[in-house]
Amino acid sequence: MNGARPVGVIGAGTMGAGVAQCLAEAGREVIVVDPVPGALTSGLDRLREGLRLTKQLRRLPSTPPPDALALVRWTTEITELGAACFVIECAPERLALKDKIFAELDVVCRPDAVLASCTSTVPVERLAANTRRPDRVLATHFMNPAPLKRSVEVVRGALTSDNTVDRTLALLTDLGKQGIVVREFVSTRVVLLAVNEAAHAVQAQSADPSTVDKVFQDCLGHAMGPLATADLIGLDTVLDSLVVLQEYTNDPRFAPSRLLADLVCAGHLGRKTGRGFHTYPSR
């Protein structure tokens, strides 16, 4: 364990566990906070599985990074982030929840701690307004699966300081990742429009989901089609993100398709449930 102060992660879901894995594999001490009953146990399971899968995909030796699991501490108490130098919030994409978390982080964290969000849609200014440190707030939009993606979209707000951006880029470099700095989310707006329009195409019976994705892969050269991408992200997360984008942009193109909403209502959330736009074999 190095002498750096710990990094906090809010949320033990797929993204939170993935970000914690990135930090632990780089030798950083991590504190993961999630108040939801059972979330910490499932988060630890996700971390173990993530370490196993990345070793296979990267063709790493069978021995895991030294003490990777031991570097991660799991807790339900946000107050334990008082010593953290940097916090990455990975909670669900819901405005009221993120407002609450950032207000609490502002109270419990050191004045010099950077408060980052893994949000893909919520404006940094909205998050910063819940704090007394708007210069130390920004978004670090990790892509899923976080351990396998080399780049992170870093979104700075109107009041985010250069020092905060520099500290964030330095942390990402330590994780072996490249930070790409933007003023507003680029990836989300483009990808979610494609996902939503693809869902509308299926809904209109223009083509089935496999054919829609095949067009993107075979005709356009994409590694993965938009509907398979949505299944990987999680259709509940896609739906929440579209709702937030529609609210902030007032753009009717972000109104979620009925098919997407129906799948989420039925509990078909993509890979994590075994069924979304596509069906996946059980593990």
Pick out the low-confidence regions.
Answer: none
Number of helices: 10
State the shape: globular
Strand arrangement, major sheet: 3-2-1-4-5-6-7-8
Number of strands: 8
Strand composition percent:
5-15%
Site (Important for catalytic activity): 141
Binding site for NAD(+): 11-16, 34, 93, 98, 120, 144, 272
Organism: Allokutzneria albata
Family: Belongs to the 3-hydroxyacyl-CoA dehydrogenase family.
List keywords for this structure.
single chain; 283 residues; alpha/beta; Rossmann fold; N-(1-d-carboxylethyl)-l-norvaline Dehydrogenase, domain 2; 2 domains; eight-stranded mixed sheet; 10 helices; 8 strands; 43% helix; globular
Ordered list of secondary-structure elements with their pairings:
Layout: E1 7-10, H1 14-25, E2 30-33, H2 39-58, E3 72-75, E4 86-89, H3 95-108, E5 114-117, H4 124-128, E6 137-142, E7 151-156, H5 162-174, E8 178-182, H6 187-203, H7 209-219, H8 226-233, H9 235-249, H10 258-265
Parallel strand pairs: 1-2, 1-4, 2-3, 4-5, 5-6, 7-8
Antiparallel strand pairs: 6-7
Helix pairs in contact: 1-2, 6-8, 6-9
Question: Quick summary of this structure?
Answer:
This protein is α/β, with parallel strands linked by helices and 283 residues long. It has helices spanning 14-25, 39-58, 95-108, 124-128, 162-174, 187-203, 209-219, 226-233, 235-249, 258-265; strands at 7-10, 30-33, 72-75, 86-89, 114-117, 137-142, 151-156, 178-182.
Structural notes for this entry:
- By secondary structure, the protein is an alpha/beta fold.
- It has two domains: 7-182, Rossmann fold (3-Layer(aba) Sandwich), CATH 3.40.50.720; 186-273, N-(1-d-carboxylethyl)-l-norvaline Dehydrogenase, domain 2.
- Helix content is 43%, strand content 13%.
- It is built from ten helices and eight strands.
- It has helices spanning 14-25, 39-58, 95-108, 124-128, 162-174, 187-203, 209-219, 226-233, 235-249, 258-265, and strands at 7-10, 30-33, 72-75, 86-89, 114-117, 137-142, 151-156, 178-182.
- Helix 1 (14-25) packs across helix 2.
- The longest helix is centred in the N-terminal third of the chain and has 20 residues, at 39-58.
- The chain starts with 6 loop residues before the first strand and ends in an 18-residue tail after the last helix.
- The mean pLDDT is 93.
- The record marks 141 as: Important for catalytic activity.
- Residues 185-280 form the 3-hydroxyacyl-CoA dehydrogenase C-terminal domain.
- Belongs to the 3-hydroxyacyl-CoA dehydrogenase family.
